[in-house]
Amino acid sequence: MIDSQTPGSPGWWFKRLAEKQVMRLADLHRLHRYAVGDADLPEGDNRVRETFQTFQRKARSNYVGLICESLLERLRVTGFRAGSDATAADDKDAWAMWQANSMDADIALGFRAALYMREAYLMIGPPDGSAGKYPVITVEDPREMIAEMDPIRKRRPLAVLKMWNDTVVNQRRALLMVGGDFHSYTAPLRDDSMHAYEGFSLDSWQHAGAAKNPAGRPPVVRLPNRMNIDGTCLAEAEDTIDIQDRINNQILDRLVISKMQAYRQRWVTGASFEDEDGNPMEPFKPGADLVWAVEDETARFGDFSQADLTPILSAVRDDVRDMAAISRTPAHYLLGEFINAAGDAFDASETGLVAKAKERMAHFGEAIEEAIRIGYLYLKDPRAAAFDSEVQWGDPQRRALAEMADAATKLSAAGVPWRTLMGVLNFTPQEIDRMAAERASDALLASALATTPAPNPNAPQAPAKDDSKPPEEQPAETQ
């Protein structure tokens, strides 16, 4: 029996976090669906719903996902940079831990989940050999993990719950991390979905054991996207979903109209569509090789004008521009066209996107630095208490190489150090280290060549030796 009544007990935390997770799952699923292009089907006429279900599916255009991906491509971790009390060796150790866990590639999964679904998590575990001598760092799906954050220090979790369906052992499993302890729980597997926790009931769960946490605290950090002052987060395109629905409905109307009304509809009066026995006959079928003819001389034929799709197309473009403005995404990303291709205008159009990227870097960078600190906790490394390196990011602003080189030349003339200039040129710390070694090698070679005297063409030359004469007859200079 799990004790869920005592405040602060493991059972109390388990019940509290599990219920909160169940309550938010529907929202997370919907946000993820929209981000991957599986938006709600646009509303159509109920009378033709079955006929036009195909149109409803085709009417969805994934602008929400494009908003998220346009920002994700600007978020690139390139290394760690030592602070005032750290050394270059500290940066290399942190990067070695990062790369040992393949986080130079996998961190993009965490960023994408946070942009799609408000937040993601990094979980740090003790070394198990999979990352060599380093602690294990993994990216966690917010649909499988939830954290209760400290109301004062909103970046530090008080308790964390990870819930998932383990189809290998045919169980639902949960891991509660609170204080310095781990608590495991199991329940029968009811659904093969990896994210199906609806209908949570504490009665179906059993406590499966507890263990001490070597880190002494929940080894989880949150990657928050658009965090508010109260600690809540927003998905990157969450406030544009209504516009996405509006666009999809407009596109559905366009598809239906182009199928039903974009071509001239014909009409006929005074013609009977019954045979001589009074049975209904099929009306005329259009065709290039068919002739419509009736015996009744009073029958009249005509056609309606086709529907104009231009207003619908204009409305969609206006909605897309609204979405670009609200999300601070350059319009040329969403519209696929350059309205003003001049250099300064192009840079100005990306100002909002670059500003967003820098803001996300600040929040995500704090989480990454905390993950490295927790890793040092597992290693009992004193740097866990005083890790003084910050995350180094690639430049989110797209710049021409000639522009960066010109800036570096001017900065060099102003006395900016060489390594800093290489950072301005967007080289990674690893590339800068390799270039520094190559510079030292080139300088050593140049120095060696400089110490070897060059031959003097104006120096007097010794007379050539005549091999036909005996030594005593040779000039003194040749003996």
Task: Describe the protein's architecture and organization.
The chain is flat. The chain has helices spanning 10-35, 53-58, 63-72, 88-100, 103-117, 241-260, 310-327, 331-335, 343-349, 351-378, 401-413, 418-424, 429-451; strands spanning 77-82, 119-125, 136-140, 145-149, 157-166, 171-178, 181-188, 206-212, 220-224, 266-269, 300-303, 389-393. It is built from 13 helices and twelve strands. Helix 3 packs antiparallel against helix 5 (103-117), helix 6 (241-260) runs antiparallel to helix 7 (310-327) and helix 11 (401-413) runs antiparallel to helix 12 (418-424). It is 40% helix and 15% strand. The mean pLDDT is 83. With 479 residues, it is an alpha+beta fold.
Beta-strand percentage range: 15-25%
Count the E strands: 12
Strand order of the largest sheet: 4-5-6-7-8
Low-confidence segments, given as residue ranges, are none
Set down the secondary structure blueprint.
Blueprint: H1 10-35, H2 53-58, H3 63-72, E1 77-82, H4 88-100, H5 103-117, E2 119-125, E3 136-140, E4 145-149, E5 157-166, E6 171-178, E7 181-188, E8 206-212, E9 220-224, H6 241-260, E10 266-269, E11 300-303, H7 310-327, H8 331-335, H9 343-349, H10 351-378, E12 389-393, H11 401-413, H12 418-424, H13 429-451
Antiparallel strand pairs: 1-12, 2-3, 2-9, 4-5, 5-6, 6-7, 7-8, 10-11
Helix pairs in contact: 3-5, 6-7, 11-12
